[in-house]
Amino acid sequence: MGWYQKLRQYFPPEEMKKKEQMEALLKQNPHYKKEETDSYIMLYGEYSDFIFVDYILVDKEKRGQGIGQRLLEELKAKGKTIILEVEPVDEDDPDTVKRERFYLSNGFKRTEHIRYYRDVGETSPELNRMELYYWSPQGEVDEEVIREQMVKAYEDIHHYQYEEYFDRWEPDPEKLIQYTPDAPEQQVHYLEQGDDHDPDQPQV
């Protein structure tokens, strides 16, 4: 089974890019990298001052052997801020609880003032609420900086050749990733094409 099929078996459709899009990223985007062994698959974007982790998948037969922790340590050794996106914790979904516990135990912090919605799914045009976690060799980092870095990764990776691979309008990452320290929680949703509102503006 190929690496893309393995990712599709594990990650929900709304978190998966199209296969052709990911292959183009690996061939044409110098920042995007893939590491693959029999034990794991990791895809990430590396920039001068930060790393964005796109996917990490450890083979189910190899879990519990510290592979995920080792991969994070290898990224930390590069001496750059690391950003990753995680499904919000759902107490009824043990996997989300374990995932958060894993990243927190490895020194990652969840951003408190970034409201983030993602649209990269192969099959779903809906916006998906995600949480951002980060680790930095400097410890605490201004979340406005994290937000700026994530916008760059979103534009460069999630929206790579977007119009070529998705038959829908391209939302603005500047609006999907917002630094809102004083704003109450709000729900963002897509507009249907043909709506009278600005199609680039997520509605709240």
UniProtKB/TrEMBL annotation:
Annotated PROSITE patterns? GNAT
Q: Where is this region: Disordered?
A: 185-204
State where composition is biased (Basic and acidic residues): 192-204
Lineage top rank: taxon: Bacteria
Q: Where is the N-acetyltransferase domain?
A: 1-135
Coiled-coil features, chain-numbered ranges:
none
Q: What is this protein called?
A: N-acetylglutamate synthase-like GNAT family acetyltransferase
Organism name:
Caldalkalibacillus uzonensis
